[in-house]
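Here is one chain, start to finish.
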Amino acid sequence: MSSDIYLKLDNEIIKNRFIIQEKNLMIWPLIRWKILSHINIKKYNLKEPHAIHIKKISINSLKYIYDTLKYSPHIMNSNYQIIFYNSARDRINNKNFNMYSDYYTSLPYKTLNIESPYRYRYYIPNNTNNFAVGQYGKLKAYIINRIKNLFYKTHIYEIERFIKYIKTKDYIDNDFAQKIKKELYKYYNRFDYYKSYILKVFRRLDPRLIVVRTAAYGELNGILLKVAKENGIKTAEFQHGNIHEGHMAYNYGYAVFKSEQYKKYLPDYILTFGDYWNDKIKIPSKIITIGNPNFYESIKKYKDIKEQKDSILIISQGTITDRFVKIAKYLSEKLQNYRILFKLHPGEVPFEGRYKELYKYANIEIAKSGDIFEYIALCENIIACYSTSIYESLGFNKKLFILDNDMSKKNIPEDIGVRFKENEELKDLILNTKERDINYNLEYYFNSNWEDNYKRFLREEVGIN
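Its structure:
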């Protein structure tokens, strides 16, 4: 989607002042990502990238509730200078180490890692001294709201006005508008309880800085940032994936830059992997290069792994799973002596109907989990479109083939990899491409001096020595 479309939406919506005054709550930060993603999917006829997990009551539900109560931060008795809000999905192979936070929590600062569950499951580390879970406040707000809804329904003028407005926009049908309406009423009805819980945690732990995964995406994270900023706490987001010039979470219209109210829903700082990413971002946050320790540690970890000859790694993505499935089937039939590893994005794993036909191909292995760096190191040929893993594979000197479409054009520089459009063209490239003699400046993409950069950021921007 052309960034002009959603930058224009930013400007229009802020001009229309869709604000629930009684709660001092802006509507657009809560729902912006969902609406822009929907427009993008419809415009380019893409698939939903992430499955919505519907919880079924089981014995595991009791474990989820027990862990939510046992490891909640509001019952902790210690103060922390820094709080990381992360996801359990970021733990390497569901083990003790969180790839996005634990390099930083290992440094000599008083740091707490608060994790949200992944598909209603926490991965509890062996050492829980600096570990908590972040679901208690959301769960409490959900239960209270469900009880209240049994007795009365709310009607909020600003929500109704907003829904009427978005229904005038392209690609927004009535069914989707009703979903957005339902979502907004959830935010409205749960806001007071969720805000109250966040304040309780902040007063208990007294942080100077919170670092929130996907903070710029808004939704509940926007409320978390707003409460923190209103209580004098600095806010930041570490880069977690590919950022391009049109990325909807990191590019905003001029009206957002002028709106002091909207800025409360955005992080004070975006902390990037390397200098390359900094000019891809148009957001009223300060951009600071920190680095990506997991990139360099993974290169060290797998540098001596033996590459498998005649092997192919396909890095799938939920928006275009069907295209990657067609590629895998074609290559399986045409290159029968090749081993093909089909790596699913975690968000597309539940969409088994999209890829289940691959199970019948003897030379295709479907990987639903595992360390992507290990798979990159193992395989001779890498096939992808616009995944962050494309940049990560630069550290392993692989033959890299990029599906040539609108997404890769926006996301991946032309000098990275070899482009292909058709399956036959890809097959010929795999058979005939020799190793490319290109030395990439890895420091440009992933700064290796992450520890010093992080300490400088804390010292100069947050006042933590």
